[in-house]
Amino acid sequence: MSANNNRRSFLTASATMAAGAGFIAIAPGISLIEVSHARPAGEAASKANRWGMLIDSNKCTAGCDACVKACSTENRINEQVADPRQRSQWIRKIDIKDKASGRQHSLPMMCQHCAEPPCVDVCPTGASMKRADGIVLVDRHICIGCRYCMMACPYKARSFVHQPLTEQNPEVPRGIGCVESCTLCVHRVDKGQLPACVEACTEGAMLFGDLADPNSEISRRIAQEATTQVRADLKLNPGVRYQGI
Amino acid sequence: MTTILSARADTPKFWLLAAIGALVSAIGIGAALYMEHHGHSVTGMNNQIVWGLPHVFAIFLVVAASGVLNVASIGSVFGKTVYKTRGMLAGLLCFAMLAAGLVVILLDLGRADRIMVAATHVNITSVFGWNMILYPGMFGIVVVYLWTLMEKRMYPFSKPAGFAAFIWRLMLTTGTGSIFGFLVTRQAYQSAVIAPMFIIMSFAWGMAVFMIVQKAMYRWNGMTLHPQIRARLKNLLAVFVGAVFYFVAIYHLTNLYFARQVEFERFILLDGGIFPLLFWGGWFVLGTVLPLILIFTPALSKMSGSVTLASLFVIVGAFCQLYVFIIGGEAFPLDIFPGMTTSSSFFDGQVDQYSPALPEWLLGIGGLGIAFTMVVVGVRVLKFLPEDNIAKLQASGALAD
Ligand code: SF4
């Protein structure tokens, strides 16, 4: 995707998102979304935020994988891998069917950015870490590739890079022998942009926002509507919430 | 000591064994370098089966290493002469297997080159992190313990050193078991009996390894084990095998009691393909029933080699058991949405098919080679043949039935 294209899709998406997410439009074409969470270079992520997502499976269409494609493009997860079981997937579409009622859904699944992440607890080196603003990341320079975090993740959200990589996005370091997962597009969020998947979802099934801000759209919806935490029994307090399941 | 092992005449034989061991080790390390270069794409492991055959070998070695020291503990801590003379050999075996197991785990890392990172960044909430403290500690304690057994003026300290080793290895095996026990999200591992089960498995596997090595050394030296000592050791092995059976039974029975675990148990015990086969045929028949028959059928147990054979079967059973536990536990799909069926391009809801690739086998066997080489060299250099002073034992009544 060219830079131009990228920019255009971002602008359209942020305009729709600004409307959808309740960000204030201060003048036509200018929304407060950038100023609301852009972080100046050099400033540390703050505890004052907790980035999260609300995914509405009622709005998510089975067979649509726009979010998955956007993620692959943004993070350059496009390497050819002979064995599909060894291919990295930061976000995937899961089709679920209630065994009792037969009701079916489709939804995107990725790192749930838990407040109590088991991957961070088990990581021997501290490569798996949670930023102050709640984003769970792997420091690709400290990861030794033991895969213990993959064993511990209840969401199967992590992938191990099984072969050498080429053509990376300089803002998204990846590497052979390391574990990786959804970064919530931290490099974009820090610039005040939306995660690529959220931006790509034309159905409005994915809402990104600050769970720590009671006035944010995401917080208000979670306060008012029924939402679900996947594997809530594990008490991990995920930053990604679902509706409709 | 009249050990022929250290006699010059045996030198070619020693070198041959050492060379075989070194070759197997080198092939294993070569396989690891190959994996390192190409990435884990050359293995059968993937994003669902993240720990594979190398982990089966490594965990066997580490667990057996802790258990083999049991032989020494009985001698030093509980003051049994028959076991005391075996303490040094047990210490050496412990050291060698622990080192070999760690080498296999380290060489399987995605970034084995970052070993210094692992040593300098320790996350203390991680069970792996604890193990980074427990393993080096174990080496230290074993070395001190061997020293107290070998050096006359250190003899008085052998009891406290043996006691420290005893406690430390219980912690070590608890730590190893807890690597799995703390994975609450996987159905195979959410059980409180895992840590004690690992401890008892370590006793059985360590004892089996000890019996085989002791037999090999005795044969080499043209010696035979005194029948009463043999009987005592084989009975102890049988007790451990029985205890493992008990714990494994508890583990599966309690799982069967929880409705949410029933599907997993069905998979492991009944319809999971290779896993029920290895569980029943490998662990249960070969690794548990056959050794007990060999040990307790009078006609069989009197035959030369029957205890060694029983020990070998115990080890085969151990590998099968670990394969079922580790690989089977991963192959069974994660229950991300309880009560729902799932499907995705990431194989959600599907049982994973894993077939270990050649480099994985070579790395694992290379680990056995490393332990073997260390033992061959160690025995030669340190002259560790467990010899019993039968007359003295009889006089003290230690051999009375
Ligand atoms: S694979 Fe990397 S991030 Fe995961 S637990 Fe191991 S060192 Fe930590």
Rounded radius of gyration of chain B (Å):
22 Å
Largest interface: A-B, 58 and 50 residues
Mean pLDDT of chain A: 87
Distance from N terminus to C terminus of chain A (CA atoms, Å) equals: 34 Å
Architecture of chain A, according to CATH?
Answer: 2-Layer Sandwich
Give the assembly state of these chains.
heterodimer
Q: CATH-wise, what's the superfamily of chain B?
A: Formate dehydrogenase/DMSO reductase domain
Strand order of the biggest β-sheet of chain A: 10-3-11
Shape call of chain A: globular
Q: SSE order of chain B, as H and E?
A: HHHHHHHHHHHHHEHH
* Number of discrete domains of chain B: 1
Helix content of chain A: 10-25%
> What class, by secondary structure content of chain B?
mainly alpha
The overall strand count of chain B is: 1
Number of separate structural domains of chain A: 1
Largest sheet of chain B: none
- CATH C-level label of chain B: Mainly Alpha
> Spans of chain B with pLDDT under 50 lasting ≥5 residues?
1-8
Q: What is the CATH fold-level name of chain A? A: Alpha-Beta Plaits
Structure description:
The complex is a heterodimer of chains A (245) and B (401). Chain A has 245 residues and is an alpha+beta fold. Chain A contains 8 helices and 11 strands. Chain A has one domain (16-243): Alpha-Beta Plaits (2-Layer Sandwich), CATH 3.30.70.20. In chain A, the strands form 5 sheets. Chain A has a 3-stranded mixed beta sheet. A two-stranded antiparallel ribbon of chain A has the order 1-2. In chain A, strands 4-5 form a two-stranded antiparallel ribbon. The longest helix of chain A has 19 residues, at 3-21. Chain B is globular, with a radius of gyration of 22 Å. The two termini of chain B are 28 Å apart. Chain B has a single domain, classed as Formate dehydrogenase/DMSO reductase fold, CATH 1.20.1630. At the A-B interface, β4, α4, α5 and β8 of A face α5, α6 and β1 of B. The complex binds iron/sulfur cluster. Iron/sulfur cluster binds at residues 122-125, 127-128, 138, 143-149, 179 of chain A.
